[in-house]
Amino acid sequence: xxxxxxxxxxxxxxxxxxxxxxxxxxxxxxxxxxxxxxxxxxxxxxxxxxxxxxxxxxxxxxxxxxxxxxxxxxxxxxxxxxxxxxxxxxxxxxxxxxxxxxxxxxxxxxxxxxxxxxxxxxxxxxxxxxxxxxxxxxxxxxxxxxxxxxxxxxxxxxxxxxxxxxxxxxxxxxxxxxxxxxxxxxxxxxxxxxxxxxxxxxxxxxxxxxxxxxxxxxxxxxxxxxxxxxxxxxxxxxxxxxxxxxxxxxxxxxxxxxxxxxxxxxxxxxxxxxxxxxxxxxxxxxxxxxxxxxxxxxxxxxxxxxxxxxxxxxxxxxxxxxxxxxxxxxxxxxxxxxxxxxxxxxxxxxxxxxxxxxxxxxxxxxxxxxxxxxxxxxxxxxxxxxxxxxxxxxxxxxxxxxxxxxxxxxxxxxxxxxxxxxxxxxxxxxxxxxxxxxxxxxxxxxxxxxxxxxxxxxxxxxxxxxxxxxxxxxxxxxxxxxxxxxxxxxxxxxxxxxxxxxxxxxxxxxxxxxxxxxxxxxxxxxxxxxxxxxx
Amino acid sequence: xxxxxxxxxxxxxxxxxxxxxxxxxxxxxxxxxxxxxxxxxxxxxxxxxxxxxxxxxxxxxxxxxxxxxxxxxxxxxxxxxxxxxxxxxxxxxxxxxxxxxxxxxxxxxxxxxxxxxxxxxxxxxxxxxxxxxxxxxxxxxxxxxxxxxxxxxxxxxxxxxxxxxxxxxxxxxxxxxxxxxxxxxxxxxxxxxxxxxxxxxxxxxxxxxxxxxxxxxxxxxxxxxxxxxxxxxxxxxxxxxxxxxxxxxxxxxxxxxxxxxxxxxxxxxxxxxxxxxxxxxxxxxxxxxxxxxxxxxxxxxxxxxxxxxxxxxxxxxxxx
Lengths: 535, 320
Hints:
Number of domains of chain A: 4
Number of strands of chain B: 2
Oligomer: heterodimer
Strand order of the largest sheet of chain B: 1-2
CATH class of the largest domain in chain A: Alpha Beta
CATH architecture of the domain at 80-279 in chain B: Orthogonal Bundle
Structural class of chain B: mainly alpha
Helix content of chain B: over 70%
Structural class of chain A: alpha+beta
Strand order of the largest sheet of chain A: 2-1-3-14-6
């Protein structure tokens, strides 16, 4: 009980204070208990069964949530948020506002916003696979949380997440809240046109040979269409990762840069790398050189910056590369509308060798900023947003009747005259969605559940969810490896090399002199430690 | 703080008369300088302590000065990468080409403008030469792509029409220095020629008339009167640009060659692009700051050397 109080006190007392006091005080509970003697502590003295109800919320605060995406300008987000804020105002005397990291240069802007650490953000949308969550923990961007805090300020969420807290714990602290109650598939693959595949004599495409035949058919028969009009400047890895995953029983280890370290699916605690060992990379480089010469993408692919998806919608590209979720919710429905009869299909990596990894429960997660002036209210607000169906729907779907309607068969649809390209709500809450409150959208591809079932039957879980790589000891080597990786991979992936075999050798030598062995040994060492700690 | 101001005021009192008169005499000039002074303070001096990031293990929560000091550890990466020589060489060679070719062309154009007699034609030519300067580097990048790309590029279109094999420019590093230098000159020459043209306009017409009476032809007027009178302008402009010799034109390089095409890097990679890649690919603030700091210090040394050499030759022309 004493410990619990010590944890709570500094939080309650630090409204406007600096966060270094918070962490310092949390480490050193007794002093905090004596120093933080203001009125706010009164409510938490009875720490044992503290609930959010007796947290002092007398001061009205604004909680800022960092989300990714382009800020909508149609006023709908503001309207929905205003309605939603009435709930927060009444329940916890707070309001929510959104800060957008626009897609242009989002990686840089996201990092810069977190790096500024000026207390302007309270809740940070994050993810362990695409938004650098563990790296951010390393860099001190997040406030360390613990069970007591979560029980107090976000009790419903705390109960829900249960065992999955393990996935977000490191060094004794919980660092973020996982989006673990939401099913989605973000495994990558390539979309191709079913109508053209049939013309080419292919029922379905499930491997790279068939994909090559499909591309060749387009080159031979579809004047003015580029089989895959991709921008190598934006998609630097091309089909390389997909090829490796479809030909080897491996999974990439997340959180280690560059993403060349993998484990064999039957032995997750041993690090390997197809980029260094075996012939698959050479095969891939040879294949992509052939494909490049056959004109399956632009000759100047590495300097082209066009949008292959728009080209596909316009019938000018025979393929586009992204994940299942995008296929089901976006590209398939839009292709049905823009290119009727195109019967857009999805060849996902690992389809032929059943090497599909289930989505991480931390593919979306919410962290509290280390410099948040109101971390306790931020958690309370998140708890409501995530678990109050009215707030949840206002936030994610908007105002019923204006932004969305629920059809008779309980699907989400939009009112007459609604145009998704101008009227979208775009609150972009991908950091705590709940299957329980989600509605299927009427526009989604009908084959969705079949596809999901198929994926589910083939997929396996990512085995190293608790692996949070600490790069401190090998920072120089990692920087050098990343530089080498970014220098060679685009050319290999798009066949822009004279001699694939020689280039792979050169790439491997460059990796070695950049310190590959050192990083490999460090990853292995930390995997061994993880294995030992898991018993 | 208080005491400091007091001593300053005391010191001011000593030179009271002269300084006051100076200030009041030049107050319009000082006022005109003010925006520039404020600009440099805000954008160049205030951020300077941030360079300290290069010596830390930067932690977002602890901030720049709270982060752990690691000495020159962050610079190791730069020196170990083996790229430093290539980057420095490219940056300097490109800048030398920009500076010397640029100034030569600017002088030629200024002389040409000067010989145009029709006022309206001169104005039109000036405006047309000026225009590329206002085109954003992003558009220049697209224009270069539109000219040189393999599948649909203008040049390859011409080649194909003439029955010749198209050329894959984007896999030939050797042609890029030429393309980049031409693009840069195309953009900046018109604008740069204005200063020289202004200097030419300032020449006493009686000198030229006297030369004409003595029988000098056009070429001789240029050789013996116009060019010598441009000498000091040219030296000052070149010295100024030498100060930026370690600074690459990021916008131009980034938009023309991008960061994905490693084939071109041996000939096109400059320090700015490298700093950008380190930041974008790794979000490593200390490493990219270290690279930037290396660039600044190296540049600072070069300016000083250049200035010392000039002072040795002719103290009149030295910047400081």
